[in-house]
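ok trying this again, last paste got cut off
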Amino acid sequence: MKADYEIRQETEKDYPQVFKLVEEAFRDMKESDHREQFLVERLRHSPAFVPELSLVADGDGGVVGYGLMTRVSIRSGKVDAESLALAPVAVRPDRQSMGIGSALIRELHARAARLGYKSAVVLGHEGFYPRFGYRKASDYGIAFLFEVPSECCMAVELVVGGLRDIRGVVCYPETFME
């Protein structure tokens, strides 16, 4: 079955639809602080933002999905290794479970690798993200400073060996903490 949407880079005119979509997608999620839409707005104006990694699934009369990857670092002592954080991925509630979120993640990974990024991290559902290659971050010697179950803290190599010799703590930009 052919997808009835197109994945493309987000433009400024998409911002209002993305705001509403992210708000709706996380509205009933108990693990959410229900402020992801504001995080997206802050990240767009931060040095962590990579415009090429802010994608929408456009179809069915508008934006039906959104995915974002932003720069983070993995710090070991005084050495920082560049990585990306996948957050958020959102699909309009009436279009969930149709593969849109999966397609966005695959496209984000492919674009990130083409841009030269070697790895990504995610705080997410341990039953969902492994299908995209994510493993427990601790398997790589990577830790998060959040009090969440370790199985929800994951990392993936976007290229073969992308996390070789990388150990440390994921450091998110201050924008994530506001």
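PB: full thing came through this time. Strands lie at 5-9, 49-59, 62-76, 79-91, 119-123, 135-136, 142-143, 153-157, 168-171.
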